[in-house]
């Protein structure tokens, strides 16, 4: 049987992405994974261009016209200066074809682990949602520096999220929505891990168990997800 072709979604306009960037940042704060004007976000708008949140502007007051445009060569255009963390946004988008958006948060739980300079180990299979069998914590470097960007890129190798020592969290995704969902998930995992550590030593999954979870995550939520006992019998119930 030939699979039906899925409709191709229209690419969002730049105006739509500017509004989405503001909405994402407001959601970050509303969800409790960020606060104030801390954190930042970016979204790709072309092969070598991206939008990034401006420096020092309240998300509640931010306007689409205040969002600067940057190129991967480091040039920026607009009325407001880009976030001080533009380097790791640029470098991630340049290095990772799978990244359409980058989110950086200072969530209380993920940042607590980052202050402890701890990776999130495979204590739960959902760690695989970030693309590997752990979520690494990059070593410390001063915010806004090339050193921090280099360390973040290394921690993100083979991953879609990492912690930044004494700083916060980075999550990437194909879209702003997916990057935000991942940031929320990592914040939740950080909270679970912290609570488990407060009680005792968490039991960790084996490399084989995490490899199985990672393989399943590659098709999770798609028609190709393997489940021999689940039979799709059609889109409508039979009459009678």
Write up this protein:
The protein is an alpha+beta fold and 240 residues long. It has one domain (14-217): 3-Layer(aba) Sandwich (L-fuculose-1-phosphate Aldolase), CATH 3.40.225.10. Helices cover 34% and strands 13% of the residues. The chain has an 8-stranded mixed beta sheet with strand order 4-3-2-1-5-8-7-6, with helices on both faces. A hairpin with a 4-residue loop joins strand 1 (40-44) and strand 2. Helix 1 runs parallel beside helix 5, helix 2 (86-95) packs across helix 4 and helix 3 crosses helix 5. The radius of gyration is 19 Å and the shape is globular. The model has no long low-confidence stretch (mean pLDDT 93).
Per-chain topology:
Blueprint: H1 14-30, E1 40-44, E2 49-52, E3 69-71, E4 76-77, H2 86-95, E5 101-105, H3 108-116, E6 137-138, H4 146-155, E7 161-164, E8 168-173, H5 176-199, H6 207-217
Parallel strand pairs: 6-7
Antiparallel strand pairs: 1-2, 1-5, 2-3, 3-4, 5-8, 7-8
Helix pairs in contact: 1-5, 2-4, 3-5
């Amino acid at each position: 049987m030939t699979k039906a072709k899925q409709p191709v979604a229209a690419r969002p306009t730049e105006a739509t992405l500017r509004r989405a960037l503001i909405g994402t940042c407001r959601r970050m704060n509303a969800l409790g994974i960020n606060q104030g004007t801390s954190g930042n976000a970016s979204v790709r708008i072309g092969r070598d261009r991206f939008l990034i949140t401006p420096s020092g502007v309240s998300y509640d007051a931010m306007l689409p016209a205040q969002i600067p445009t940057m190129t991967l060569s480091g040039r920026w255009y607009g009325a407001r200066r880009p976030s001080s963390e533009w380097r790791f946004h640029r470098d991630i988008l340049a290095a990772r074809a799978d990244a359409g958006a980058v989110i950086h948060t200072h969530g209380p739980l993920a940042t607590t682990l980052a202050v402890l300079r701890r990776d999130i180990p495979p204590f739960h299979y959902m760690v695989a949602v970030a693309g590997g069998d752990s979520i690494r914590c990059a070593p410390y470097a001063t915010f806004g520096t090339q050193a921090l960007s280099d360390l973040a890129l290394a921690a993100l190798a083979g991953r879609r999220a990492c912690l930044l020592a004494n700083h916060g969290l980075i999550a990437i995704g194909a879209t702003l929505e997916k990057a935000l969902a991942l940031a929320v998930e990592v914040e939740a995992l950080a909270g679970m891990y912290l609570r488990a550590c407060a009680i005792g030593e968490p039991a960790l999954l084996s490399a084989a168990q995490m490899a199985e979870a990672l393989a399943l995550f590659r098709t999770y939520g798609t028609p190709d997800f393997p489940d021999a006992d689940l039979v799709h019998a059609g889109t409508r119930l039979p009459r009678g």
